[in-house]
Write a structure and sequence with these properties.
Layout lengths: L1 E2 L7 H5 L2 E3 L21 E2 L3 H7 L26 H17 L18 E2 L11 H5 L9 H5 L7 E6 L3 E7 L6 E7 L8 H16 L9 E5 L2 E5 L3 E2 L1 H4 L7 H4 L13 H19 L6 E2 L8 E3 L5 E3 L6 E2 L2 E2 L4 E2 L14 H4 L7 H16 L10 H9 L9 H5 L1 H13 L10 H32 L1
Antiparallel strand pairs: 1-2, 2-3, 4-15, 5-6, 6-7, 7-9, 8-9, 10-12, 11-14, 12-13, 15-16
Helix pairs in contact: 9-11, 9-15, 11-14, 14-15
Amino acid sequence: MATAPTKTTSDWEVNNIQIKIRAFDSAIFNHSDTGGWKSPAQFRFPKETINRLAKVRDFGEIQFNQLRSGHFYREIDAKDSERYEKFRDLEFDLMNKDPLEEKFFHDEELDYQECRRPKWMSYYFPNCNSFHEVDNSRYYTRDAVSDIDDHYDSYYFSHGYYRDAWMLENADRQECVVLKMLRFVKHDFTAKRFANVQRDGIVMERLNHSPYIVDMYGHCGASLMVQRIEHEIQEQIVPDGYMTEEELDDKYEVQPQNSYSIKEKLYFALSMAESLATLHGFEDGVITHADVQLCQWLRTYDNRLVLGDFNRAEIMAWNDHNNEYCNFNNGYSFGNYRSPEEYTGEDLDEKIDVFSFGNNVYALLTGLWPFYENEDDTFVQSKLVAGNTSFIDERYQLRSYGEGKMVQLIEMCWKFKPKDRPDIFEIVEFLRIVYKKVEAEDEGNEQSTVETNHVL
């Protein structure tokens, strides 16, 4: 049964409406499974989804046994062919459209006659055969339902707000890729969602050369195939996130809530800044990420941080008359991790990424979320709009050189007016200087320790 809050005020609340799906045979399960394809799990779908899935489906002559109970399968109806024809025409229009003639993607933006999108924004290079060749089916057995070993060629493992994520292995099992598909039980396939994924795909295609960006291997319709990266960093940087003053227990000494060294924190901050500099400094036009959060970065096996997920990215338009980039407008935003101007519906530029990047640095420094004492999005938004920022314990400034510089950087990023914030290139230069000095101090301390031990 679905339970929902009386009023949803954020994406997080919408995404966390919980639905319990009864297991195939609960007596045989004694473990949890994130995907729910082999064991019972909680799935967060909106209430209307249950009504859709409760209907009896007609699969024609196709005979199969599903691994999960609860009618978790795609809805097939008579309008599918109509949808196909509609979006097939849309795809061809996107490929053929010349942005030099079509000045803006959205009709409501046509008032800004001087602003033009870069031509590459509408590029679309699908390799759908690579997707259609992937076999996600399995033989149905009772063992397959209860098996906790992920030795299958493919399996569902996670989801975001818009998409499910599947792990896929190639035939010789030498490497894996991640298939990201639209969450069909939560979101309908619309022209807007297709455009969002197309934008995600073309940004990754344009930046595929960068070591700071997740590699993309394919794009088809509302699906992407990307590099598999096992290590998330958010839970290590912010283990708990929200705490009361009593729980923090820092009366006599400041208490960072993560275990990273100053050098590691600066390295992560520098890597994130260099990722954003790849977008803001793209030679064919500035790209604003517009959704900067810790969870957008993953750590590779060789300890590099790479940035992914560009479906909210803004490919900025150029004003021929003023010889500058045009601002854009995203309306009124949800959540508690964005810049003040995003909550007031103002026109925006790439400096929104800088403000949210400051939140990341704050989390690295303290191990806490900004405004860690209050989880209410409306409260945080009102504080930010009024010009307030999260509390930073002044003892961090004196605790070490590196921590003092991180405080300085946070305060720079959190300037209320976008024009007063540094650009991402100034931040990269700042962090490189600080990191180099901290690294030299560490090497000097290690050498002193070696010499002392030698004397002893």
